[in-house]
């Protein structure tokens, strides 16, 4: 049977036409899909800019379904879930990204960081710690260490907090010596509470060496020495504080007055407090001066010191203390007037956090409100 070449000649154009139609169909479908994906993406972006998060999430989910390989959409969706407080959904998005084998190193590190943030916001500190530790050696390492430090401080894991600050200091992320001194003080106080006086003293002394300008370590060390019966050593420790960090001296005044009287050095401390008061007038220094003046039997009256203070510093607190022993023309009304002044002056004797404004009757080394260290000045609200 002879092969008819005419069929080949007829078939070639037909095959060409069918191939061309198929390619046009595929290209049109691809264009439609690509057109739908950006449309959903821009729709979600528009909703996001208009703060319509519910509609934005729906649009981004549609875009992810049309193009599941788009990492940026996953990140946007995960961040939206986190902002809305839907931490479980945010975790699933970022874990899905991490499970992909084709994800690049940069995107993998970014997804790991986002996952750590999800756990932090959800309060899952154990999971957050594990996720943050995986960021060592990545571009997010510095941020991860800051977050880890916050976790360790929040959980009062002072040895781990000390270790992470040492890494941060070696990486030149800042000077953490003052904070390390606080960590040592926290551990020393725990040892002291359990009866380990020697261990506590060693840690307080290490804190002093770590941050010589830090007042807390010296004050706590002085208290420890006083309880151990070493009043003279305790007073010497506070006198060192007056030399290296005089701005914090008002916090040590009550203990210093007590120790000076116990060791017979009242006149020396009285002179020191007067010198410091002349440089930086303070209500606490003034109270110390008045207490020693009375205890040492000087000729001056406590009221005179408060009047001198009022001549240079208008103070409702000092005025109330002056009035306490003053005889009024209508003495029968003295208790009511004194009670009213004391009530009005009470808020002025508080300490205020310089970071968040949280006020407290006592001085805190770490603010209970914002957790910032050394944010409480050694001065009362009225003096700020």
Automatic annotation (TrEMBL):
Coiled coil segments of this chain: 214-241
Any one of the GO CC terms: cytoplasmic side of plasma membrane
One BP term from GO: lipopolysaccharide metabolic process
Subcellular location: Cell inner membrane
This protein's UniProt keywords: Cell inner membrane, Cell membrane, Coiled coil, Iron, Membrane, Metal-binding, Repeat, TPR repeat, Transmembrane, Transmembrane helix
Top-rank taxon: Bacteria
Sequence ranges of the TPR repeats: 37-70
List of residues binding Fe cation: 353, 356, 367, 370
Entries under InterPro entries matching the protein: CellSynth/LPSAsmb/PSIAsmb, LapB, Rubredoxin_2, TPR-like_helical_dom_sf, TPR_rpt
Molecular function (Gene Ontology), one example: iron ion binding
Database matches in PROSITE patterns: TPR (PS50005)
Domain LapB rubredoxin metal binding: 351-375
Annotated TM spans: 6-27
Cytoplasmic-facing ranges: 24-384
Main location: membrane
Membrane topology of the entry: Single-pass membrane protein
PANTHER family xref list: LIPOPOLYSACCHARIDE ASSEMBLY PROTEIN B, TPR REPEAT-CONTAINING PROTEIN PA4667
Family recorded in the similarity comment: Belongs to the LapB family.
HAMAP family the UniProt entry points to: LPS_assembly_LapB
NCBIfam families according to UniProt: PRK11788.1-3 (NF008755)
Functional note: Modulates cellular lipopolysaccharide (LPS) levels by regulating LpxC, which is involved in lipid A biosynthesis. May act by modulating the proteolytic activity of FtsH towards LpxC. May also coordinate assembly of proteins involved in LPS synthesis at the plasma membrane.
Protein name according to UniProt: Lipopolysaccharide assembly protein B
Organism: Diaphorobacter ruginosibacter
Lineage per the UniProt record: Bacteria, Pseudomonadati, Pseudomonadota, Betaproteobacteria, Burkholderiales
Gene of this entry: lapB
């Amino acid at each position: 049977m002879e092969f008819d070449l005419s069929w080949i000649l007829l078939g070639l154009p037909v095959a060409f036409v069918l191939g061309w139609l198929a390619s046009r169909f595929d290209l049109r479908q691809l264009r439609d899909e690509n057109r739908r994906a950006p449309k959903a993406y821009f729709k979600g972006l528009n909703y996001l800019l208009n703060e319509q998060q519910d509609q934005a999430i729906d649009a981004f989910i549609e875009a992810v379904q049309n193009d599941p390989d788009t990492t940026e959409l996953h990140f946007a969706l995960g961040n939206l879930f986190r902002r809305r407080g839907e931490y479980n959904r945010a975790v699933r998005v970022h874990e899905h990204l991490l499970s992909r084998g084709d994800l690049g190193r940069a995107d993998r590190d970014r997804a790991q960081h986002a996952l750590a943030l999800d756990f932090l916001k959800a309060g899952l500190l154990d999971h957050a710690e594990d996720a943050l530790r995986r960021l060592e050696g990545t571009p997010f390492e510095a941020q991860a260490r800051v977050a880890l430090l916050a976790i360790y401080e929040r959980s009062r894991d002072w040895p781990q907090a000390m270790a992470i600050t040492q890494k941060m200091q070696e990486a030149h992320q800042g000077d953490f010596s003052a904070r390390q001194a606080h960590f040592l003080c926290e551990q020393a106080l725990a040892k002291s509470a359990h009866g380990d006086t020697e261990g506590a003293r060693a840690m307080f002394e290490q804190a002093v060496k770590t941050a010589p300008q830090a007042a807390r370590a010296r004050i706590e060390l002085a208290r420890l020495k006083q309880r151990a019966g070493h009043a003279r050593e305790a007073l010497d420790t506070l006198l060192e504080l007056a030399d290296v960090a005089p701005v914090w001296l008002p916090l040590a005044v009550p203990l210093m007055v007590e120790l000076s009287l116990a060791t017979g050095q009242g006149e020396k401390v009285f002179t020191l407090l007067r010198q410091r008061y002349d440089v930086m007038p303070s209500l606490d220094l003034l109270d110390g001066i008045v207490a020693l003046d009375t205890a040492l039997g000087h000729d001056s009256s406590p009221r005179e010191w408060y009047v001198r203070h009022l001549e240079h510093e208008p103070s409702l607190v000092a005025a109330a203390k002056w009035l306490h022993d003053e005889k009024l023309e209508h003495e029968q009304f003295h208790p009511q007037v004194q009670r009213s002044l004391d009530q009005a002056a009470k808020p002025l004797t508080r300490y205020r956090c310089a970071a968040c404004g949280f006020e407290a009757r006592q001085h805190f080394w770490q603010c209970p409100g914002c957790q910032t260290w050394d944010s409480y000045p050694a001065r009362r609200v009225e003096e700020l």
